[in-house]
Amino acid sequence: MDELHDQAAGLLRGGHSVFVLTGAGISAESGIPTFRGKDGLWKNYSAEQLATPEAFQRDPAMVWEWYHWRQSLIAKAEPNPGHRALVTLERYYKRFLLLTQNVDNLHCRAGSRNVLELHGSIFRAFCLECGQKVEHGIDRRVIDALPRCECGGLLRPDVVWFGELIPADIWRASLTFLADADLALICGTSGVVWPAAMIPNIACERGLKTIEINLEKTAISGIVDVSIAGRTGEVLPELLRLMGL
Q1: Catalytic: which of 68, 107, 119, 136?
Q2: How much is the mean pLDDT over the chain?
Q3: Catalytic residue flag (residue 119)
Q4: What's the maximum distance between 2 C-alpha atoms anywhere in the chain?
């Protein structure tokens, strides 16, 4: 393991333009459940049953009740050492981009600045009438009623639901940055959720140095330059130490 840490630290030390992809693993270390499988059950409903346009059309009040419940759980969480280590790395490089699959806003709360949210934010909503995006947190004034825009239109969570396409502009910006990057750091993602799962393969095909940090081996563990099994909140601070940061 020490050898893998040294290899990863060496790659990070030699990088100039770094692309980071994060997934549910880094948020789980802050105590946030995945909201999928058994962790996602709420009133006997699964995330796959609630996070869809069809569910919102049938019963927007129930979907919003679920999202307010999720917001209440996420609001209690704090950024962990993995989040904070990525903030330090961002300050170290001239070019840095963090693409996250998480909707919990913990990267921004930790201090990361160059962040793209591939699946949106649970603390943001948009109007189905005028399209305006608004910050939307846990507010007792709206929990007992359907959240509405200033124009009167119904608000919906600004997250990508099952069956929906990811924001084209965010995906395009991610690929544009990746084309000129020299290192990709993949943290806390299983590499099975598309299209984010394409990122490691694209990075390897373009000759980027690649580092994976995840609790378990994944589909990409065999193609990256260095794969470290462990918690991001433990591995990343250790890599920073080896880099002298």
Answers
A1: 119
A2: 92
A3: yes
A4: 59
